[in-house]
Structures are given as structure tokens and as C-alpha cells.
Amino acid sequence: MARTRPAPAPFDPRSTTRPDEVLLRHYLFQSACSGPLFPIFFIGQYCRYVSLRYRFDDEGVWMAWGVLFKKEINLAYRRIQDINVTRGLIQRWLGLATVSVQTASGNSSAEMRIEGVLDADGLRDFLYTKMRGARGLDEEHAAHHPEAGDELLGLLTDIRDGVAALRERVETLEARP
Amino acid sequence: MSGATERATAWVYRGVWGAMVRYLRVPDQPPGVPPGGGEVVRSVKPAAGFLRYLKLQFWVLLVIIDVCIIGPWVILLVVSPIAAAITAPVFWGVAIIPDIFAFVAIHVRYDTTYYIITERGVRIRRGVWLIHENTITFENVQNVEVKQGPLQRHYGISDVLIQTAGGGGSTGPHGEQSLSGHAGLLEGVDRAAELRDLIMSRALASRSAGLGDEHHERPTARGLSPAHLAVLRDIRAALS
Asked: What's the complex ipTM?
């Protein structure tokens, strides 16, 4: 139990679409706690694990699950009120956490519970920088790491290089007597 | 308490703490600071008075419960000394062993509570079995409550409750807010007024209602990022 676990891969919003396999083991433990009702609980949990999908895009996060009864939740980053990270004992052993995201809706329980992300702290930092009142890092980040495949930026860079080459050519022509 | 006893209890407590870190995977470091950069960060533990306050509660409860357990045993001792002698380990065990656990739990609770306060928000961690970490930005704060009972006043501590928008925060039997719903509770802090002023000044500085974000993601107009602007400036420099 006490062996040190390698640090999880940093959270990447683009590639996170499925919960990690460890989540199934967590569900197994959870269902086992219900004793004789284990099969009933585990079938439900297994369906949730198999069908759970996430999508983190520029504006918000989407999650969906369900085999018979499907459910999906859409949530805009800017509407996030508070972010809770809870780790139970079994979750800590497995290196998991539940990231609960709350909006200003009327229920006291979390609107979205993101499970099965190994780098929960990374996910929380990602959501935190996107929620309101936490500005500052985002612009710096964008300045130093422009998103790959940004067409406008590529176009502008080409124009700049073209203008520079043109200017150089004009200067060499002017220098000629 | 003599020096040797104190050293022994400290040694035992370190052992308990070590086992918790090792087997229960309780983090022994304070929680990470929310990203943001260039901020004044304060890591606040509950005040020392909070520990004394919890211990007073503990002693009062201990006396009440133990009188209820040991009282019948004393009556039994008067009625039938032999039966009392046989059942003594059970009675005294039930009376004393949970007390030791509860006393250690108070220290553990105190040592696992962290409040990280930055210029933009607050992060609260509490719990041992189930570790809660709640992050709230001050922009989203709707109201701040400061509560202080007479005993808490004696120890110079208050509870600061930060509430965000959204309903359903059920209140427990002793007035404690449920930890999951739209609120952050800073228990047992000694500079409550200072904290309240800091949080309210942040909340007032924001001209919005704290419901979503009215500003555009990037302050530069027309959807241009700083990287785009940098390239455009390069072009202007090349043309001039």
C-alpha cells in the first residue's frame, strides 16, 4: 500500500475523453461495500464507467453517461462557482479524486462530478484558471504558447516574413548605384 | 505533565501521524496554491485558541458521557462488589478507550485543516477519511458571515462562512453548514474581521453580480490574442 506511485501524467483537456481504468477498480470497491447487493450496484457502476465520456473545449465542459437512461451535462467554465476536490480513503490508495464543480443553480449537491482523472490537481487548476475572478495566467499562457494550428497567426506570420523579405530586397536594390 | 510524558505523547502522536501519511495517504503538506501568479499568499491555520476550544468541548462531553458509564458501575459496586469486579474492564474500557481516540482525533483534525488565502480566492482543506478541498474565487462571493459564540469569544476565535450563489446549503443540527454546498467555512480563525474585510473588499470591487463572467475571455478586441498583436507589430515595424 505504501509504495510510491509515479506522478500521473499532467492533465490535458484535449485528450481527456474517458475516465482512467483505475476508476473501474474504485467502483468495484464501492460496490463490494454494499455486501450482498454487490451485483446490482456493480452493474450500474460498470455501465456508468463504460459509457462515461468527457469533452473539455475552449468554453466549457461536457460529460455524458448512461446505457439505458442517458444523461449529459453541459457547463460553461465562466459559470463555475466553486470547485471541490474530495478524496476518500480508497480513492487515495488508487490515486483518484472526485472533482465536483458547482454552478449557481438551486441544488446543494454538485452539478458535475468529474471522476477518474488521475491528475485531479491539474484538472482543478485548469478549471480554476478558466473560472471568473482567476484571470492573469491565461493571457500569459496564450502569449507564450499560441495554440498550434491557429490559422490567423500562421497567416500573419507569413505576411510578416514576406514583408521582411520584400524590405530586404528593396534595400539591396536601393543600395545599388 | 512532566517532560518525559510530554515527549512520550509527542512521540506517539508522531507515530500516529506517520501511519496516517503512510497508510491512509493523508497528505502532510498544505494544499497547492491556486494558479494565478504574482499574488500575495497566506496560509492560515486555525488559531491556537481553536484547539483549546475543541479540547474544552471534549472535556465537557467526556465528563458527561463517562459519568453515564461509570455511574452505573459505581452503583453495581455498592450492590454487588463481585459483579462489579468482573465487569470492571468492560466498563472502564468503554469509558476510556474512545476518549483516547477522540483526543487524538482533535489534534489530527486541527493539523489537517488548512486555509490558503490568495489575492483572488481561498482554498480550504479539511478531513481525514474523506479529504475535502474547496476552491472559491472572491469574485463569486455573495455574502460573508462571521459567527462567534460566548466560548469562542473567550478563546478569541470566530467562524467565517463564505457563501457563493446557489441554494440548498443545508444547515446541520448545531448550525454548521454542510461542506458540499456553495460555501466555504473557515473555522476557528482569530483574525476574522481582517479576513471579512479582505473578502468583502474583493467582492465589492467586482461590479458584476457574481454569476458568470461578463468580460470576454481576452481583453484585446476583435478576437486577437497577444500573439497575433505581436506579429502585427512586427509587420508595422518592417513597413516603417
From this structure: 0.70
